[in-house]
Amino acid sequence: MRSWLWLLVVLALGGLFYWGMQRDPKELPSVLAKERRPAPDFTLPLLPPYRGEWGETLRLSDHLGKKPILINFWASWCYPACYEEAPILEAAWRRYGDRVLFVGINTQDKEGDALRFIEQFGLTFPQVFDPRGRVGVDYGMYGVPETFVIDGEGRVVVRHAGSIDQATLEKYLKEVLP
Amino acid sequence: MIRQGAGLWVWAFSLLLALSAWAQEGPASPPPDLPPEVFAIARELRCPVCQGESAAESNSGVAVEMRRLIAEMLREGKTREEIKAFFVDRYGEWILYEPPRRGITLWVWVLPVLGLALLGLGLFAYFRPKKPLPPELLEEAERRLKEPPA
What number is the ipTM of this complex? Predict the structure, then answer.
């Protein structure tokens, strides 16, 4: 009888340890994407090359709920991940730009470095400047690059941490495209 | 003569070391002078980039911004709990250094106590003073000892 009890204790502990070892400590939960929360609003200055087309500042709520939005956090010092995904994002923007709005948020960076990065990859989707990284905290971001996909109703449906590849990006976009 | 030369080398080397401290690039802007309460709160929050550090220790951009936000919220008169709730709202309970005492993380608090209790129980069972043998059994044994071997 008592040996059964001990076996039970050992099994329960073993089960707990096993369950704990299956968990990935690197996987960081996104409250926004899990609960499909409305995308946090922000108003940020656009970087000079985009002011002609988009104005001095970009307010996200002006665009929320009209069509899906993809937000990409990046920095020029984020090598190689941000350098890998920049051409992929630009190509996707050229292809889907009429149906999805892409917004790049340059975060914790210097304006000169950011402009050099933009020129290097010829980024044509609007880029805003957030040197403090305030918006990143609102999105629960932990490091660049990070990509958020917002559906047509203004809800965050996807958070992708790290460099994004073309297949994954298209899969996310198909989810939110009407 | 040789020893003198070695001494000279040691001096030159230490001078080089001292100089290399100058070469280190200073931070872009001096860290803001934040009150100690900011760090007390930041110490209870995880730095999102550097998983093993708290937001008080790290100098990563996110951690610096978190401290700045905490300082701003303190100035606005927000309480410690409200500030922590602000970060939990964005990052989930993952951001708290101390796991909350409910839900699944309650086990983190309960299990060590449970383990200690089990250990205590086992030790007690092991070292429990044995019950003395019943007197009739002792008498029987003594009687048998006194019996001449058959």
Answer: 0.81
